[in-house]
Model the fold of this input.
Amino acid sequence: MLLSKSCIYGMRAALYLASSSNNKYISIKQISNDLDISPHFLTKILQELTRVDLLESQKGPTGGVRLKRAGDEVTLVEIVAAIDGMDLLTECALGLPGCGTAKPCPLHEQWADTRDEIKKMLQDTTLSDLVRKGKEGNLRITADGSFDWLPKEN
Amino acid sequence: MLLSKSCIYGMRAALYLASSSNNKYISIKQISNDLDISPHFLTKILQELTRVDLLESQKGPTGGVRLKRAGDEVTLVEIVAAIDGMDLLTECALGLPGCGTAKPCPLHEQWADTRDEIKKMLQDTTLSDLVRKGKEGNLRITADGSFDWLPKEN
DNA sequence: CATATTTAAGACCATCTTGTCTTAATTATA
DNA sequence: TATAATTAAGACAAGATGGTCTTAAATATG
Done:
């Protein structure tokens, strides 16, 4: 698997938040309901994103979480880095420590190129990019496609 | 992590076997010694590769495992498919079942391209390709670089 | 044929990831 | 101020992966 489940859930939730126009606090319970993710588990994941300042949170009634920066200023690589770490984008495909141009493994060259493609994709894609695409095509971010991208207009 | 440890170990062992010119049976114990991999664990992994006919094995003294086909006819994707399965190369990056051109997720387009790059890399790289590179540059397939690519000449 | 060596098979345990639950702290609001 | 709602924190359970060990089956060789 490329990304852990935690990371995937984090990305889906970030997309959810980025699709909200007014950027008000939204409760994790609502997010977990709409995205069909276990609420406690999602809470733990979003706490991590709050800790690294991708989200901000507020407790109590009317509390919840929201993006700390605008969606067009948050790229996927930041979410991946926060949850899965940068290992995928830096480590050797054969698992050899210190593998690099100076001390490569036989697969290093090929994998370095491929790895850079992944990195570029994650760096070049913002939350807003995906929200735009999602709203235009009414695409799904849940298994059953129940998420509605509301509100549709900004 | 892109590939599981089992898969990485399987690839390293396959490289080891492909680097042997005469393709005689080599005991798993010797491989595990030279590559510094737990012998029992490696045995289990190589059994899997034997099961899918990438390797063939013989029991008893002078027994061991060897490549069933020539190294230039075995690509990395076969090893990955045998051990980790094809999930990495077919599944949605957001984990949505049935994600594809017909019913995409917002990230589908980008990820499909990137995924194809990974696939192409694994499909285009043969064991012999890596052995050649390894012998030419005396590159390592162990953490400490102790593997010697013997014999150097074929 | 007896023995030693090797793979095959699977039980078993450790560690990591995934997921659940409980309690505490915070805060809006009646 | 009391209450209810919410995040924060962390203990705990379940499941997957990584790794060890034991026993059985096969086989080369003395």
Summary: The longest helix of chain A spans residues 108-124. DSSP finds seven helices and two strands in chain A. Residues 4-6, 38-41, 44, 58-63 of chain A lie near DNA strand C (CB under 10 Å from a C1').
